[in-house]
Amino acid sequence: MSTPVLQAEPGGASSGTRFWLKSSRPAAETDLSNLKTNRIEPEVLATEEEVGRAQLEEIKEAVAAKSGDLVLVLLGGRGAQAMYRLVGALAQTSTLDDVLGRLHVFTQDALAPLRMDNPLNFVSDFRRLLGDAFFRKIKSFTPMRTDVTDLQGELTSYTEKLESLGGIDLFFLGLGPEPEAASHLCYIKPGSGATAADFAGMIPIYSSVLDHHITKFKVGGATVTEADEAECRAATHIMTLGPASILGARRIVQSIVDASTAPAKRESYRGVLETQLSDEPAERASQLDQNPGLWLRLHPNVRSLVLPDVLTA
User: Fold this and answer.
1) Apex CA 98: angle with CA 170 and CA 65, to 5°?
2) Among 44, 77, 111, 296, which is most exposed with the fewest C-beta within 10 angstroms?
């Protein structure tokens, strides 16, 4: 695969600079006029544990359907915690050894800079929930590292490894609430300028995502000190996979299990389900930039797992 290209753009209203790495996919595959709009049909499950079991079955089925190794992208926050606890327990036995031994595992976003063992770092949370046995048994683990001096170089190396393995087979995604019923996927924020050709990027931090990030970690059971939170709030940028990663994944499994603690997700999710995407490329690009959650509507293979309260008024 070709090496991604790093492009620097003005940071807009936020201070700093944003960068996007262009995908190596053919231009026709990232042309908005060629992408069909799809419906998302919510699959309502009764409990967070049922969502976790469904996610684990997705991993098993993906491994069974593919010869060779599987590239998996983990979801941070609440959406997959039940699955991680289940997998972590099974990893202490031999039950999943054949599955785990074929997984190349990646993370999808990160706050930068932030030390890897800060409990508000996704990697620290994954290790807490999945346990040491899981990380010993998988084929590889590649996080977005943000405890380095060259963040741009680190993101480029991360992207090159992900593409060298053939791209994403199974992408676990959530949905983050944004003002005016908008939403973010990974940490692609509204107005970040991400396009269908952008594989990964780095954008200036914004306060609302910090509040959401810290709240979901605390609700999810992370033990956070004042010093941990202060370090997190001092982050200046967000590293994130981009729309091209989402569109290029072979299978996407979305999960929303925390509407009770993040009620704004109800309206944001409704916006993703109900928004009429324009057929005119420039207008569609504007809709996607204003509400990045809509990128899911352009993927043909999405399973959306939600709890009943996500769909209540």
Assistant:
1) 45
2) 44
